[in-house]
Amino acid sequence: MKVSVNGTIFEQKDALVSIADKAVWYDFGVYxxxxxxxxxxxxxxxxTYRLFxxxxxxxxxxxEEKERILQxxxxxxxxxxxxDHIIKICVYGDADKNARATVxxxxxxxxxxxxxxxxxGVKAITYQGERNFPTAKSMDTLVNFIAFRTAKERxxxxxxxxxxxxxxxxxxxxxxxxxxKETIITPPLEDVLEGVTRVLVLKLLEENEIPFKEERxxxxxxxxxxxxxxxxxxxxxxxxxxxxxxxxxxxAPGEATKxxxxxxxxxxxxxxxx
Length: 274
Hints:
Blueprint: E1 3-5, E2 8-10, H1 22-25, E3 29-37, E4 40-41, H2 44-57, H3 66-79, E5 85-92, E6 102-109, H4 115-120, E7 122-128, H5 142-153, E8 158-162, E9 167-171, E10 175-180, E11 183-186, H6 196-207, E12 212-214, E13 217-218, H7 219-223, E14 227-232, E15 236-243, E16 246-247, H8 255-272
Parallel strand pairs: 7-8, 7-15, 11-12
Antiparallel strand pairs: 1-2, 1-6, 3-4, 3-5, 5-6, 8-9, 9-13, 10-11, 10-14, 14-15, 15-16
Helix pairs in contact: 2-3
């Protein structure tokens, strides 16, 4: 698979990042994962908007317009004939002068999770840690990596990050929601990344008059929830039925979660034009 560098497509072996680049040393970069499903790029404008928002939060000057980045995404997907993939956009800033950044794009295969994950729910663990610049999708993802690695070692699908105040913020690669008495609760935006799937799900809740609110979620509140679900670009909406070997609610996907899973699937089909 070839790589796009500032809009020009290279062989992967020729698209190199220097070990001497200070942006690499200091994680002075932002990234995005854009899903391509059945050959269609899913919500690229929303992802590009967030890319620039993340860059603004950490003071990184990209040096290109959003529409130009979108053109690069569309061209890369067309030239590479992408069908079911994730386009990873990695933007490394100019660490010395903060002039024009370098924008890398490459594709990896899209993961399709087993149907049973959605029908039965998945296991998670809690992990003590929080991201720096939590509202930005920055390259500083060490805590995410270690948390997810720990989850895999314990046979879990995801790790829920618990901050220094004892609140559950987000998954290592997902946004987090609990259900309390038929109301959906998700951590406030000042504490978490505004995931694209999160934006879409909250829109669905509003359109379908499903009550929701943004509040901090203590670990005790998390474990006592009636239902828990997570959202992400690759996994969409998925129920969490066990955390730290403790069943959540009835230990199976609840009615609220199942409704949201179905609503999201319908919306995705409509976006695909099916």
